Amino acid sequence: MPAGRHPDHAPLELERFVPYQLSIVSNTVSQAIADDYQARHDLGVTEWRVMAVLARFDGLSAREVAERTAMDKVAVSRALARLVAAGRVRRHTHASDKRRSVLGLTAAGWKIHDEVAPMARQRERELMERLAPEEQAWLRRILDKLMPQDGHE
Amino acid sequence: MPAGRHPDHAPLELERFVPYQLSIVSNTVSQAIADDYQARHDLGVTEWRVMAVLARFDGLSAREVAERTAMDKVAVSRALARLVAAGRVRRHTHASDKRRSVLGLTAAGWKIHDEVAPMARQRERELMERLAPEEQAWLRRILDKLMPQDGHE
DNA sequence: TAATCATGGTTTCATATGTAACCATTTGCA
DNA sequence: TGCAAATGGTTACATATGAAACCATGATTA
To answer: How distant is the Cα of A81 from the closest Cα of chain B, in angstroms?
Structure first.
């Protein structure tokens, strides 16, 4: 047996272990995207996700934002605090339920959104262009299948 | 145009955005694996990765571990501190270069490794079983292609 | 061989994140 | 009604993480 190997113990080959590969690829691409706007706009990943959701669905509550971003409510609460303070998100209280907030992007929020969204799309394109068209299609199909089907509620 | 939508702004559809999907899928599966050993063995993800690498490559230095785990050296240093303190990793100084450490699993380390590795593999299997065999093959091929080709050094 | 630079590794500090406890309001139901 | 349980959201605390400064050792070169 080769020196330094331990076949009796069947060690994991990290670089062929799918969960590990997913983690590396995911972190690499997310980081690349974040680098684009982090410094430029002082915007964290969580904040950007909240903005992206509010761009599509105006008037959501914090809880609904949490659902759609797959973030927990604490993370959303913190992101919102920063976004509101920065004047990027408007928040007022729901008319008939004073616990709920009603959220939406401000003009400043839209401005940032309209700068960041194309950059994000561009990064996605760059990632996909490393794959053959056939592979791109399979990847999309596979990810759709593996995404948690939002089993709650 | 439908109420609450803003087509002029071309908002990102997060749930079809590949980097976002990758992040969700990756976190979900990693968390599931971590849950298996976190509580049972008081072992963090970073620590487990270090152990997995040392199981395959005995005698690495901390820097080499960092390379193979795609973690930065601070994270590795901290993980090693805990692992050595817990008696799971043995560390001594390189004979001819006193900066380097020479690392390896202890018997206790191997014991944990041999419990955790099969669980991790099982989780990977469960993930893959949600895909058709054809899709599994494509996913492996695609991830191999997307993995950063270790461009440093 | 002394001065400088590079390398392996740890410590420090500031920030991010998760869990649990917590308020305020609303709902369910006796 | 009136009180317990549930819900939306925030706060507090403890832990994790990353960047930069740091220390010790080794390599390089004048």
So the answer is: 21
Q: Please indicate if any CB of chain A lies within 8 Å of the CB of B88.
A: no
- What CA–CA distance (Å, rounded) separates A47 from A87? 13
Binary contact (B117, A29; C-beta < 8 A) = no
Total-model pTM:
0.89
Say if residues A65 and B14 touch (Cβ distance below 8 Å): no
Question: How far is Cα A124 from Cα A103, in angstroms, rounded to an integer?
Answer: 27
| B44-98 tens-digit pLDDT | 999 999 999 999 999 999 999 999 999 999 999 999 999 999 999 999 999 999 9
Structure tokens at A49: 């996700």
Q: Is B2 exposed, middle or buried (0-12, 13-18, 19+ CB in 10 A)?
A: exposed
Residue at token pair 């620590």: B47
d(CA A25, CA A131): 13
pLDDT of residue A1: 46
Instruction: Please report residues of A whose CB lies closer than 8 A to that of B118.
Output: 10
Give the separation between CA A10 and CA A31, rounded to whole angstroms: 33
Chain-chain contact of A123 with B11 (C-beta, under 8 angstroms): no
Nucleotides of C under 7 A from a protein CB: 7-12, 16-20, 24-27
Integer Cα distance of B142 and B128 in angstroms: 14
